[in-house]
Amino acid sequence: MATPTASSAPLIEKHTIGYVPPEDRHGKVRDLFTLWFGGNIAPLPIVTGALGVQLFHLNLLWGIVAILVGHLVGGVLMALHSAQGPQMGIPQMIQSRAQFGSLGALLVVLIAGVMYIGFFASNIVLAGKSLHGVVDSVPVPVGIVIGAVGSGIIGIIGYRFIHVLNRIGTWVLGIGIVVGFGYIFTHIQTDDFLTRGNFNLSGWLATVSLAALWQIAFAPYVSDYSRYLPADVKVSSTFWTTYLGSALGSSLAFIFGAVAVLATPVGMDTMDAVKLATGSIGPLMLVLFLLSVISHNALNLYGAVLSLITLVQTFAYRWIPTAKSRAVISIIVLLACCFAAVGASKDFIGHFVDMVLVLLVVLVPWTAINLIDFYAIHKGQYDIQSIFQVDGGIYGRYNPQALLAYAIGIAVQIPFMNTPLYVGPVSAHINGADLSWLVGLLVTSPLYFWLANRDTSYRRRMMGGKLASSL
């Protein structure tokens, strides 16, 4: 059967969390590069990248090295998740039922949903402030609503429209950030651009961790944007286009933030530094970044809605969600986030973001379990029908091995954490460097592999799953 082209696929996505059959597969693997390149050139990664020189006092050289190392390492995990999409044809979170069981996966799905909602709420506040900065006459609350509605429309239309916008955004934002770099380097306003800061191990490790965690944060939904590709797409092609797009786009944005703050006087807010450093083209850069926030934030709304649908469908297993269901839930989430963002104080939003950063800690062992299960245990072969059964089919309601490895994976990270809500003793001893994600990966991966292979009954049930992807 011939695979439909992207142009023949419906603009408004009709699928939600269900399996995407071969006749509905479309798109090109190169679309993954533009999605993750264009989506990562935005204010939030720019602000995050600046922390290496602002907060951890690295100089430009060591800041760039740390940023590149973090994105290149974290991007591997993110891209490995992306490569699952064409083979599975289902969203990432519902696939977790195959590792944790139909009920065991609920905690991870809930955590991912809360994280998406947190990022969506935070980004619409950022969009509101950015719009107010570009047009003074637009109050921040009005800007918040405009940003939310823009992201909402994109998210409701869905998969194909998100890819189309990011194909355009890759060229526009890519050219824009290159021009921005050129202007900054020719209009440096400080004498210590190359000498401010120095190398310090704790600051370097902390910056590496920031970059790596940025990539890992995409893991729970990255394969949602590759699941419509034809099933015969090479795993290596999906991996490399995702990896290069995300690592390159994120690295450019992070480095842009570091360069902007070093090119301006000490103590400036990052986005103010960007505006000052880019001089006459500053307003145009802010407009481009505003549009990027609105476009990229649609991914957070889309992921939140798929997570909520997955939660409900776990109990209402006879329910077949449609595009209308996805639109209704999108509107509910959008209205709730708007209400919270407009009515909440600045401190409240800050605390909410802090909570989201803590949630990343509990997603790291999930990443390890999911990847080990997919690539080392099942080798990409799953029983899709079982994943959608209320009792989990061959995967059961709970997988004790996965839940045990998951709990231990969280526990071992605690001493190494450095979040706004908690700083572990090891992190405090090494001047705030957060290595929890690395410890979580190194412990959880072999532990789950060992536990899963020791459970002979589990392996017998998995052999039954070699009939996988039978839909």
Give the structure's gist in a few sentences:
The chain has 471 residues and is mostly helical.
Can you put this structure into words, describing what you see?
- This protein starts with about 30 loop residues before the first helix and ends in a 7-residue tail after the last helix.
- The chain is mainly α.
- Helix 1 (about 30-40) packs parallel to helix 11.
- It has 20 helices and no strands.
Output the keywords.
globular, mainly alpha, 471 residues, single chain
What profile does the largest beta sheet have?
Answer: none
- Quickly give the structural class: mainly alpha
Total beta strand runs: 0
Q: Shape, please?
A: globular
Strand content: under 5%
Mean pLDDT: 85
How far apart lie the N and C ends? Answer: 15 Å
Helix content: 55-70%
Work out the radius of gyration.
22 Å
Helix tally equals 20
Subunit organisation of the chains: single chain
